[in-house]
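hiii, so i know i said id send this last week but things got crazy w the move. better late than never?? heres the sequnce for the chain we talked about at the cafe, plus the structure i predicted for it. fair warning i was half asleep when i ran it
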Amino acid sequence: MKNKTAMHESSIRYKKSSVQTSDLVSDIPTDFTLLSRGKAKQEEIEDKVFWITGASRGIGETLSKQLAGLGAKLIISARNEAELERVKSQLVGKHAPEGVKVLPLDLTAGEESLKEIVMKAQSYYNGVDYMIHNAANDVHTKTSALDVTQESLKATLDVNLVGTITLTQLLAPLMVERGKGHFVVMSSAAGKVPAPGQAVYSASKYALNGYFHTLRSELNQKGIKVTVVCPGPIDTPNGTGAGSSGKMVSSERCAELTIIAATHGLKEAWISDHPVLTIMYLAQYTPAIGFWITDKVGGDRVLAASERENTDSWSLLFGQKKIKDA
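okay and structure toks below
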């Protein structure tokens, strides 16, 4: 079969399976890039310094556990120091838990505060090899674009966009001085296709994608790499993926694929099950069809969310549910 990823070499498809990490690649269809990339590159992880934001739960916690097990040196950050200590106590690896650095971080604290945090992180291991931007404002309650409050707007943009960019602007020059550094950005499928019911969250992720792809193009020749990861619905242990779909990628598999994408230097990675992945491909290569689908289901998706129903199902497109008249 001709490799479909000749069209989009950085995309990754997830297929649900109960296999262990060692069998990860065997259950991925051969027409996607992940199979050709194989497993994560151990030499790109062991003894390397990974700074992870949003590490106190969800994907960030899972990434911390997997990277620790692969021999990475970790700096874990989030607002809740007690939860970070909990995560640290559960880490096992060459440099864990004793060598793991807990660095509380509030992305909304402003430039001066973030500058102090960056210098502290820099001092732990004389530099940061991988900056994993995972922190995000939780947006699990979907609402119409016209019903978004100013409070919600500011809270989402301050964390997902402004704080993340500010942290990058402070850290990137230090990476440039060292001649190397890698930003791994946990974006979203909502940053690639319209996400009815999540207008502001989607806007923050579209903007994040634009910023980091541009950053890479500007700093690539100075040794700076960027991997933008766009997951669809993710099932996390603490339920942060709840209310989206009955068919979600596990946080463990999302973390595994993220690590593979980063260590192989992929510029962008898509991690999702269907129908979200299908819509992403349609929007990428046949935008008229992709946008027709999102337009068709948009109102029903917002309505389904308000009634706590499945918001990422084929039934929104082929089912009988229709928007209720006001």
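btw The radius of gyration is 19 Å. thought thatd interest u
miss u guys!!
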